[in-house]
Amino acid sequence: MNKKTHLPKQDAVERKWHLIDANKKVLGRLAVEIAGLLRGKNKVFYANHVDCGDFVVVTNASRIVLTGKKLDQKTYFTYSGYPGGAKLTPYSVLMAESPEKALFAAVKGMLPKNKLADKQLTRLRVFKDDKHTHSAQLAVSVNREKK
User: Fold this and answer.
1) Which residue of 19, 23, 102, 117 could cross-link 141, Cys pair, CB 3.0 to 4.6 Å?
2) Maximum distance among all Cα pairs of the chain, rounded to whole angstroms
3) CA atoms in the 13 A half-sphere facing the CB of 146
4) How many CA within 13 A on the CB side of residue 29?
5) CA–CA distance, 39 with 49 (Å, rounded to integer)
6) What's the pLDDT tens digit per position in 54-86?
7) CB within 8 Å of 101: residues ≥ 6 apart
8) Which stretch of DSSP H or E encloses residue 47?
9) Which helix (H) or strand (E) holds 93?
10) Packing angle of the helix pair 99-110, 27-39 (nearest 10 deg)
């Protein structure tokens, strides 16, 4: 029996492309699934200090659902760094104008707060409708559905 732990090397990581349709999916639950794919937690050789995640393409971001009263009560906070530079945007306005930002912020909040998160976020592509520019990379489109 081999009792040695295998640590993956950065150059040996094989990245796949995942296509996720966000039609009628809950924002937080979808963000958890995307964050796991970006980190590589679905792989056998996962190590939290190695960037071994995949590419994720999300379509139909404008059809994401928020549960409860979050659409009215939840706010998106940005800060410019200057005094008085705080902006609070209600999610009702944010989802109407740019739902990609809402999903991106949710996924960013679920990734670790370190240098790896910046690299992992570059592999996330979010599109408002069902048209996307990555059809060449997505030979087999993966649509994750709960059974």
Assistant:
1) 19
2) 63
3) 7
4) 12
5) 10
6) 999 999 999 999 999 999 999 999 999 999 999
7) 76, 94
8) none
9) helix 91-97
10) 60
